[in-house]
C-alpha cells in the first residue's frame, strides 16, 4: 500500500499540511481562520514576486476556476488571443467560447512551445484585449519562455495572462518584473497542498479593467471576491460564498513550509529533481515529449514509450511502489506517460521513480538499458 505519488497534482503531501486542516470548530469568520487567510494572501504575493500594487485572490475551485475567473477582466466582444502549447492552453478556448468574446488561436507543435515570433507577429497585426500564455504545459511538460514572450508583446496588448498552474512554486516566476497582468495557479501542484483552491494575482491595470461591466458569471466574478480578499488581508472576516475553510488552513501550513525552505531553494530543488529524472530516462534509451532542452520543465516530464502501452505501464508501476500520471495529449494517446515532480519531491524520490520505471518496463518487455537509468540518476546527484 505504500507508494510514492509522482503525479501532476494532487502530489504527495506532507502529513503536517494535511493535519493542519483537521479542525472541528472554525467558522469562516473565526479569528484563527481570518489569520490563516491573511497569511495566505501575503504569501501569495511573495510566491508570484509581486508587491502591494498587485491584488491577490484565493478562490474556491482549482486551476480551472482561476482560469475562468479571468472573464472578470473582459467585456462583451473583447478580443482574446490564446497562445496554446497543448491541452491546458486549449482549455482557454473552451472557457472563452462560453462567453460573448472573440477568440483567436495560435498553437504549437506537440512537444514544442508557441513560437515567440509568431505571437509577436499576430499581436502586431491585431489589437487584443488579452493574451493567454501557459508557463508549463502539463500535458507535455513543455515550458514557454514567459519572460522573453512577454517582453516581445507587452507594448501591443492590453492584458497578459499566464497560466502558472504547473510552474508557480517550482519555476522562476516574476509577475511584476516580467510585466504579467494576471498570473494564476492552483493549490495542489508545486505549492504542495490539497486541491480545492484557485490562486491568482492581478496587476493595477487589470484591477482597473475590472471596474466596468464584465462578461463573468456570478460565482467566478472577481468583483464579488474582491471585498473578501481586501477584508481578509486587513484581518477582518468577510463573506461572499463559503470558503473551503479547512483547505485554506492546509494551504497556510504549506506556505509556512515554503517560507522555511525559501522560495529560491525550492525552485533549485525542483530543478535538480527534474534533471535527475531526465538523466535517468534518457540514459535508459527513452525519449522525452519535450523536444527542445531549453523548454524542459522543473515539474513534469513526458516520457514516450517505444513498444508498450501507457495503460499497462501505469497499472504495473503501482506494483513497484510508484504512481505516475497518464498522458493526456490526444496526439500521443496511449504512447506516453507523465512523471510529475513537484511539491515536496526530493532527488531520492527521483532515483526511486527511475528504478521503478526500469523494473516495470523490463517486466513489460520494453527495450531499455536496465540499470543505466539508476546509474545516471545517481551520478547526477553525486556530480551534477
Ligand atoms: N492549467 C494547467 C497548466 C494545468 O496543468 C491544469 C491541471 N492539470 C489546469 C490548468 C487545470 O487545473 P485544475 O485541474 O486544477 O482545474
Protein model, in words:
The chain has helices at residues 15-19, 31-47, 63-68, 87-96, 116-125, 146-153, 175-178, 204-209, 222-233, 245-261, 263-284, 310-319, 347-364, 372-383, and strands spanning 4-5, 55-60, 79-83, 102-106, 130-134, 136-137, 142-143, 159-163, 182-186, 197-202, 287-288, 300-304, 322-323, 325-326, 336-340. It has 384 residues and is of the alpha/beta class. The protein has 2 domains: 4-8 and 263-383, Alpha-Beta Complex (Aspartate Aminotransferase, domain 1), CATH 3.90.1150.10; 15-260, Aspartate Aminotransferase, domain 2 (3-Layer(aba) Sandwich), CATH 3.40.640. The strands form 4 sheets. It has a 7-stranded mixed beta sheet, sandwiched between helices. A 4-stranded antiparallel beta sheet has the order 11-12-15-14. It has a two-stranded parallel ribbon with strand order 1-13. β6 (136-137) and β7 (142-143) form a beta hairpin. α5 packs parallel to α6. The radius of gyration is 21 Å and the shape is globular. The chain starts with a strand and ends with a helix. It binds 4'-deoxy-4'-aminopyridoxal-5'-phosphate (PMP). 4'-deoxy-4'-aminopyridoxal-5'-phosphate is lined by residues 8, 62-64, 88, 134, 138, 163, 165-166, 186.
Amino acid at each position: 500500500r505504500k507508494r510514492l505519488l509522482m503525479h501532476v497534482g494532487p502530489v504527495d503531501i506532507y502529513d503536517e499540511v494535511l493535519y493542519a486542516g483537521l479542525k472541528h470548530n472554525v467558522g469562516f469568520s473565526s479569528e484563527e481562520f481570518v489569520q490563516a487567510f491573511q497569511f495566505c494572501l501575503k504569501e501569495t504575493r511573495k510566491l508570484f514576486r509581486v508587491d502591494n500594487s498587485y491584488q491577490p485572490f484565493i478562490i474556491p475551485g482549482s486551476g480551472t476556476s482561476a482560469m475562468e475567473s479571468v472573464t472578470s477582466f473582459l467585456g462583451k466582444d473583447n478580443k482574446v488571443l490564446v497562445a496554446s502549447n497543448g491541452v491546458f492552453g486549449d482549455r482557454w478556448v473552451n472557457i472563452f467560447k462560453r462567453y460573448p468574446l472573440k477568440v483567436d488561436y495560435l498553437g504549437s507543435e506537440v512537444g514544442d512551445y508557441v513560437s515567440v515570433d509568431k505571437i509577436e507577429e499576430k499581436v502586431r497585426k491585431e489589437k487584443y484585449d488579452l493574451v493567454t500564455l501557459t508557463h508549463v504545459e502539463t500535458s507535455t511538460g513543455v515550458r514557454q519562455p514567459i519572460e522573453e514572450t512577454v517582453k516581445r508583446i507587452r507594448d501591443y496588448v492590453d492584458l497578459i495572462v499566464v497560466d502558472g498552474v504547473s510552474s508557480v512554486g517550482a519555476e522562476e516566476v516574476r509577475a511584476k518584473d516580467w510585466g504579467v497582468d494576471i498570473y494564476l495557479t492552483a493549490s495542489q501542484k508545486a505549492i504542495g497542498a490539497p486541491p480545492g483552491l484557485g490562486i491568482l494575482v492581478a496587476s493595477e491595470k487589470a484591477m482597473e479593467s475590472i471596474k466596468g461591466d464584465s462578461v463573468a458569471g456570478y460565482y467566478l466574478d472577481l468583483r464579488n471576491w474582491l471585498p473578501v480578499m481586501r477584508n481578509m488581508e486587513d484581518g477582518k472576516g468577510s463573506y461572499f460564498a463559503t470558503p473551503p475553510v479547512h483547505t485554506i488552513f492546509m494551504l497556510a501550513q504549506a506556505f509556512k513550509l515554503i517560507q522555511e525552505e525559501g522560495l529560491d531553494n525550492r525552485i533549485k530543488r525542483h530543478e535538480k529533481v527534474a534533471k535527475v529524472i531526465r538523466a535517468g530516462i534518457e540514459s535508459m534509451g527513452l525519449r522525452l515529449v519535450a523536444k527542445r532542452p531549453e523548454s524542459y520543465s522543473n515539474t513534469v516530464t513526458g516520457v514516450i514509450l517505444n513498444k508498450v502501452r501507457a495503460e499497462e505501464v501505469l497499472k504495473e508501476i503501482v506494483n513497484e511502489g510508484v504512481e505516475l500520471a497518464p498522458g493526456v495529449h490526444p496526439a500521443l494517446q496511449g504512447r506516453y506517460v507523465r512523471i510529475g515532480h513537484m511539491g515536496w519531491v526530493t532527488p531520492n524520490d527521483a532515483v526511486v521513480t527511475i528504478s521503478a520505471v526500469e523494473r516495470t518496463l523490463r517486466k513489460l518487455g520494453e527495450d531499455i538499458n536496465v540499470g543505466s537509468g539508476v546509474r545516471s540518476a545517481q551520478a547526477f546527484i553525486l556530480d551534477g
